[in-house]
Amino acid sequence: MATSKPQRGSSGYLPEELIREILPRLPPRHLLRCRTVCKAWRRLATDRALILDHHARQPAQPLLTVYPFVAPHNNCLEAVDLTTNNRRMVARFVDRAPRPLSSPNDAAANLVYKIRGALVVHGSCDGLLLLSFHDAVFVCNPATRQGALLPIPDNGFRHIAGFYAHAASGEYRVLYHQLRYNRVEGLRRKYYVLTLGSQDAARNIQLRTSSAAMGAGLARGLAGSYDLPPVLLHGSLHWPPQQSQNGNILVFHPAAESFSWIAPPPAALPLLQRKHHDTRLFQMQGTLAMFCWQHDARISHLWFLEDYHGAEPNWVCKHRVELPVDLVYEPLPFYPAIPYPEGDMLVPESCDTVLHYDKTGTLLGSFECFVMGLGITPHTLKESLVIHDFLHTQRDAGAGEWFPQVEFADGLPVTGMPF
Fold first, then answer.
1. What is the pTM of this model?
2. What is d(CA 238, CA 64) in angstroms, rounded to the nearest whole number?
3. Is 91 inside a domain boundary?
């Protein structure tokens, strides 16, 4: 019996249209392996449109920094799959030549280092991670094993405020501020924008604001993006309410490099005035959402900003949840509950268990991890196989030339606790 020959444009007996539907649904490491099957599959698996489709389908996985006490000079970066509550290794950072902190007199920094190690996550954007390890700042893509060091000096007063994609140019940029001193102006806080891949140095931007109070708040600085990351919505960065901004939501418009305010929900003002609260912003359902956690009552509120472009902000509270769990507080230097864009929350219950709740307060699962060596970051990783010219490629095995301290992992699951 004669068999039909495969049609032109297909691989084996699978039509190209079917292959294009299958490949974007594979995990990143499996899609990379598909490039070695044949020339036709390599052409499809390296097609930019398919790679962007693949990135859009990837889940946003919360990032953890783990400081194993059995290897005190190592720091691990892990991701949590919220569908299974399993951890997987993303990268390991090895302090091959242990160094003291750049600010040895900073008691808070020493405490954080002793508990969490030297690895800090400052931002995540389109599969790229902005990280620091000791005084080195770098951007990397764990899926493609690429990275590059960034020329952001650390004089003990560096604060990274945001990492974002510039809509008009497609460039990736970092917004940070530093304390600077000169004889004419004295001690002043200056804001800089660094464009990744540019040969130009970071630009000192003018603080264009709509009020003197806003300018005074910027002069006092912004909270670090490692703790309170801004949300990119409609091409602008939005920060959660901070004391330096009189409780308002600060907005940075990259096109004009200017700042403005959005008033928070009126019902949230009593919560924001309390000492123990945690407020974060997200992009949810196409608009701005604000999460506010009331520590003493174990209650969370989730507000949505309806009609973002309206003359007056119209906030609607859509969720109010009380978690039935005693939360971990002192002496741990992190918040007792970390929310994520879809409303999921990771809550340390004890010294070895982290609980996973949804936005309605339903317990979805848990995972084991020694809490004293754990940093639950507010950042997530949504993997991408897009290749960037401004990044250097890491070798498959061993340390890379661009930053010998990093070793990318193969994404295998992590079990147990880092003893």
1. 0.86
2. 23
3. yes
